[in-house]
From TrEMBL:
<dbReference type="GO" id="GO:0003746">
    <property type="term" value="F:translation elongation factor activity"/>
</dbReference>
<keyword id="KW-0805">Transcription regulation</keyword>
<dbReference type="GO" id="GO:0070063">
    <property type="term" value="F:RNA polymerase binding"/>
</dbReference>
<dbReference type="GO" id="GO:0006354">
    <property type="term" value="P:DNA-templated transcription elongation"/>
</dbReference>
<protein>
    <recommendedName>
        <fullName>Transcription elongation factor GreA</fullName>
    </recommendedName>
</protein>
<keyword id="KW-0251">Elongation factor</keyword>
<dbReference type="InterPro" id="IPR036805">
    <property type="entry name" value="Tscrpt_elong_fac_GreA/B_N_sf"/>
</dbReference>
<keyword id="KW-0804">Transcription</keyword>
<comment type="function">
    <text>Necessary for efficient RNA polymerase transcription elongation past template-encoded arresting sites. The arresting sites in DNA have the property of trapping a certain fraction of elongating RNA polymerases that pass through, resulting in locked ternary complexes. Cleavage of the nascent transcript by cleavage factors such as GreA or GreB allows the resumption of elongation from the new 3'terminus. GreA releases sequences of 2 to 3 nucleotides.</text>
</comment>
<dbReference type="Pfam" id="PF03449">
    <property type="entry name" value="GreA_GreB_N"/>
</dbReference>
<dbReference type="Pfam" id="PF01272">
    <property type="entry name" value="GreA_GreB"/>
</dbReference>
<keyword id="KW-0238">DNA-binding</keyword>
<dbReference type="InterPro" id="IPR022691">
    <property type="entry name" value="Tscrpt_elong_fac_GreA/B_N"/>
</dbReference>
<comment type="similarity">
    <text>Belongs to the GreA/GreB family.</text>
</comment>
<dbReference type="InterPro" id="IPR036953">
    <property type="entry name" value="GreA/GreB_C_sf"/>
</dbReference>
<feature type="domain" description="Transcription elongation factor GreA/GreB N-terminal">
    <location>
        <begin position="4"/>
        <end position="74"/>
    </location>
</feature>
<dbReference type="InterPro" id="IPR018151">
    <property type="entry name" value="TF_GreA/GreB_CS"/>
</dbReference>
Amino acid sequence: MDKVPMTAEGHSAMMDEVKHLKTVERPRIIKAIEEARSHGDLSENAEYHAAKEQQGWTEARVAELEDKLSRAEIIDISKLSGDTVMFGAKVTLIDEETDEKTAYQIVGEFEADVKKGKISVSSPIARAIIGKKKGDSVEVNTPGGGKSYEIAKVAWR
């Protein structure tokens, strides 16, 4: 089984989602199924079928999250330091064509949220910059074509 790297924050968020699904969503769906059953013929009962579909999705999501949590390798970023880009690092990149600065934190696959500046450790940008240092230039093959970046800053907090 492969370990799933994640930050303590990502692990906590995943635990919270499992708790919410089990304590809030499950009971709500069970109630919806019971209510739909009371309406009679289940073969033509759209509410029943929708609730059963939602129940299936919820149970699959719980199973997926619990699998990831069981294989979690929590990496304590507060104990990391240095100028080499690794998992958990907050990296400021400068686009070498436009001089535009972008900051990313390298996180676990299921924590990634580009809008919040968090990219997956398996993303093309992260794979290109891991192991590099401040001042290094990197070429990144993105779906939109090749991009060149300079690593301007590597931070841990």
